[in-house]
Amino acid sequence: MRVFFTGGSGKAGKHAIAHLAEQGHQVTNIDLTPHRHPGVPFLKVDLTDGHQVFNAMASPASGDDLDREPARYDAVVHFAAIPSMFLTADNETYRVNVLSTYNVLDAATKLGIRKIIVASSETTYGVCFAQGEVRPDYIPVDEEHPTVPQDSYAMSKVVNEVTARSFQARTGFDIYALRINNVIEPHEYLTYSKAWRETPEVRRRNIFAYIDARDLGHMVDRCLKTDGLGYQVFNVSNDDSSVGIPTAEVIERFYKGIPVKRPLGEHETFYCNAKAKRLLNYAPSHGWRDLPSKP
Prior knowledge:
Elements: E1 2-6, H1 11-22, E2 26-31, E3 42-44, H2 50-57, E4 75-78, H3 90-110, E5 115-121, H4 152-171, E6 174-180, E7 183-184, H5 189-198, E8 211-212, H6 213-224, E9 231-236, H7 247-254, H8 274-280
Parallel strand pairs: 1-2, 1-4, 2-3, 4-5, 5-6, 6-9, 7-8
Helix pairs in contact: 1-6, 2-3, 3-4
């Protein structure tokens, strides 16, 4: 597929683009910051400018495009965003994330691109960036859990999901929103694994979960290859938790009194990915437990 990928220079995007290229997709990286993936054209585009978005999505991406029949994009993957709290003013985070997502969805649907994947976030559940401690309503947290966040970043992601659903209702296209958990790159495990084993409380705001950046790329590929689901929201996580202690101890120490919807495995994730497995054949294959416990 020919894929218009926004945010391909970021922490999550660069791994996803690498995986998609390995799978044979023809990807264009749309970002403000260059990142030279082998064989992947780069276009600098301000996604808050709707004119730039529409023009870039409708234009050749490189000189190679001039030597073949003009081809529109088959899919759009929208990862670009201000990726967290504490990077700029709260209202700027909200403005950039909401406006850029509207512009991408608007251009893609008007150009007839029938597969759109939008990066949402674990933060929509209101735990990660809450003031003080907020615990989930129940565990494991699935896509039916309420999304009532307190912070501007997560608010922007909730709004983006509503916007995506509205564009899907208008067009009937496939638009999938990915509630991505804490993205961990392979080289980061040696830095984090000691703390994950010895101080599990540091993972509370991430619902004791994570997603390996390589498995996130696999998730995007599964979305590209699965048609006909309309509008869907998917949690994206690895199968295991991101702490060394077993599930029962996590519940006793951090989730005592929280309803448990079903029995959980010894180290099973508290951030349920069953829907992605069922509908997309998602199968994460990387993890941190076999690595050394010391950095």
